[in-house]
Specification:
22 helices; 411 residues; mainly alpha
Length: 411
Amino acid sequence: MPSYRSLFRTPEFTPLFLGSAAQTAAQTVGGLALGTLVYRATGSPLLSAVSMFGPSLAQVLGATFLLSGADRLPPRTALSAIALAFAAGTAVQALPGLPVGAVFAVVLVLGLVASLGGGVRWGLLNEILAKDGYLPGRSLFNMMSGLMQIAGFATGGALLTALSPRVCLLLAAVLYLTAALVLRLGLTARPPRTAGRPSASATRRTNALLWSSRPRRLTYLGLWLPNGLVVGCESLYVSYAPHAAGTLFACGALGMFAGDVAVGRLLPPAVRRRSATPLLLLLATPYLVFCAHPQLPVAAVCVTVASAGFGASLVQQERLMDLTPAELAGHALGLHSSGMLTLQGVSAALAGTLAQLTSPAVGMTMMAAGSVSVTLTLAIAGRRSPAPERERKRARSGPESAGAAESAEAR
């Protein structure tokens, strides 16, 4: 497996990494500022949670109609345009006197734009790196994301004590602009991975092909549901601890960083392949402690320990790539990203509703219990799955052949 250092000697890896780092920093600072702005204006845990994670709700529309663009658009152009769109949208959200309804309209538009981002970015990463380089490369991106979130939430929390949320949103817009410049100037002009124009029909056909395989379906559900339900817990940090939400987010990012290091570099391959379910249980179980409404120090420890479980996504993505032919990698990773973000947005709305009816602590406990239940159910369902090579052959043969093979297997 390639070392982290060798990845930075790979052409185009460094600008993609730096551009993504700037975008992650912008998302953390801007998301915390927007959630705080909406909570101060409305006093609603639901609206605060949806404002931070609302763009994720629009991912389902993008996954349905736009995702074919992940392999059919030039990567450099697409990534730069997405960063510019977020810079503009974040700046609009900072306008004084902007109604809450208009804020959520911008959130929806940005979610649609973002639906292409995961597929384009991770498809390009899969193209830049050799086959055995994707896991350490994605691990390094996840570690960067954790560090940027630690710095972003800590910095954002400090800035919000000295500046208004609107000023923090403008700073986030500047970071998005920086990301756009780094991506535009640092990446080379590559052609699309797949011929043809992006279209809703092409998106639906490829989605159906990817979804036709039972092992891929279970892998997607494992990537989306347990993770999404726990992000619902995270969406309640602002209402649970209004003056220390940045601390909880930073602790979560620290735990995620530790989990990615362990999975990406420390676990032997044989152990790593069996670690998805234990990590997903670790991701949710500590949040059950919130039923006792713990004080901030205990809450911070629970959040840190739980977030190490996010390393499960590396194991699951490795399996997804083993189950998917290379020509569908961008679309497959985009479907993973869009579905994951959609479930995170839905979970944030659900968690906010539960908190509105009960309390943030009760809402977090209920979401964590749901995540544990889903993880155990998927583990039982996934005990019998065909080999990855067999699934790649099915995907190449088309959705009809794949479906016929599924029926034969079921008989």
